[in-house]
Design goal:
The protein is built from three helices and seven strands. The protein is α+β, with helices and mostly antiparallel strands. It has a single domain (4-157), classed as START domain (Alpha-D-Glucose-1,6-Bisphosphate, Chain A, domain 4). Strands 1-7-6-5-4-3-2 form a seven-stranded antiparallel β-sheet. It comes from Vigna unguiculata. Pfam families: Bet_v_1. InterPro entries: Bet_v_I/MLP, Bet_v_I_allergen, Plant_def-hormone_signal, START-like_dom_sf.
């Protein structure tokens, strides 16, 4: 079976640069604070510690009950000026055991209203002989959306943060 690709969009009244800084550049610090029930910690596994380092590999310990408990992702490309971020999930348990990797390409674009539209293109690369369906990853996609909404709500409640 070939790769499966899904596109998700999220619209916010927060400016794209602020959302990018909070969600991408400060993710290791901010996300465990906003979602301690879902993400226990984020730690650097390889790299120099800067989120703009393409060689970084980040491990996440998740508080996900019987769902995914850990994952590792590798940054493939990050451009704070163009507000784009590409990374691949390269290791994990649960539903992630069905895939070799999941690649994500995220773009933050300004809207006419002054907010932003976030577009995430996710491509699931299944292991040989394994069939994957969108519903296999629905919980992970839902948690990703919940994370985005949590950061958005934080920025709306804290207008001076990440300016």
């Amino acid at each position: 079976m070939g790769a499966l690709t899904f596109t998700d969009e999220f619209t916010s009244t927060v400016q794209p640069g602020r959302l990018f800084k909070a969600l991408i550049l400060d993710a290791p610090n901010l996300i465990p604070k906003l979602m301690p029930e879902a993400i226990k910690n984020v730690q650097l596994v390889e790299g120099n510690g800067e989120m703009t380092d393409k060689e970084i590999v980040i491990g996440n310990a998740l508080n996900a009950g019987d769902k995914i408990k850990h994952l590792k992702h590798r940054i493939d490309a990050i451009d704070p000026e163009k507000l784009t971020y590409s990374y691949a999930v390269i290791e994990g348990d649960g539903a992630l055991e069905k895939v070799d990797s999941i690649s994500h390409e995220i773009k933050f674009e300004a809207t006419e209203e002054g907010g932003c539209k976030t577009k995430n293109v996710s491509t699931y690369h299944p292991k040989a002989g394994v069939e994957v369906k969108e519903e296999d990853f629905k919980a992970a996609k839902d948690e990703g959306l919940a994370l985005l909404k949590a950061v958005d709500a934080y920025l709306l409640a804290n207008p001076d943060a990440y300016v």
